[in-house]
Amino acid sequence: MSPQQTIALPVIAHVVSPRSEVSDDYWGGVQSIIRLVPEMPLDTLEGLEDFSHLEVVFHFHLASPADVHLGARSPRNNPAWSPTGTFVHRNHRRPAQIGISHPRLIKVEGRDIHIEDLDAVNGTPVIDIAPYFLEFGPRGAVHEPAWPREMLQEYWNPSR
């Protein structure tokens, strides 16, 4: 893959998590910290505690550019699910290798943002943090095929 345009993004924080290995499932109940880099002013977090959930954009730093897969494939390589294109998957095999998650905010303590249910491993670079606004959620009815629900039935179960 040879992108026509690339961008550089600053790392604003890193994840501190008990999970150090990538896993397809069992992210429920995982408590982590998003720790701002020292160069980030503390007042960038002012008012964040007023929200219940965050939107966190992070880089799949353990993935390799060789992991990118352009084209259609079956989700989790399960032949029971029809092949779907690159932009139907939500994993590290996408071109930018960026993840988005919506963890619950527990508290803010200095430059540490304590959260639950962030599906990122220890050391993950964070590119952006924003409060989750209901007004920016989906408008209208949401629909999807059956396979995501089947595939993710263990995703938010507690770690084993």
UniProtKB/TrEMBL annotation:
Which residue numbers delimit the TsaA-like domain?
Answer: 9-141
Select a single GO molecular function from the record's annotations and give it: methyltransferase activity
Q: Which Gene3D superfamilies match?
A: YaeB-like (2.40.30.70)
Q: Name one Pfam family in it.
A: TrmO_N
Q: Where is the signal peptide?
A: none
Q: Which UniProt keywords apply?
A: Methyltransferase, S-adenosyl-L-methionine, Transferase
Q: Which GO terms describe its biological process?
A: methylation
InterPro entries this protein is in?
TrmO-like_N (IPR023370), YaeB-like (IPR040372), YaeB-like_sf (IPR036413), YaeB_N_sf (IPR036414)
Family, per entry: Belongs to the tRNA methyltransferase O family.
According to UniProt, the name of this protein is SAM-dependent methyltransferase
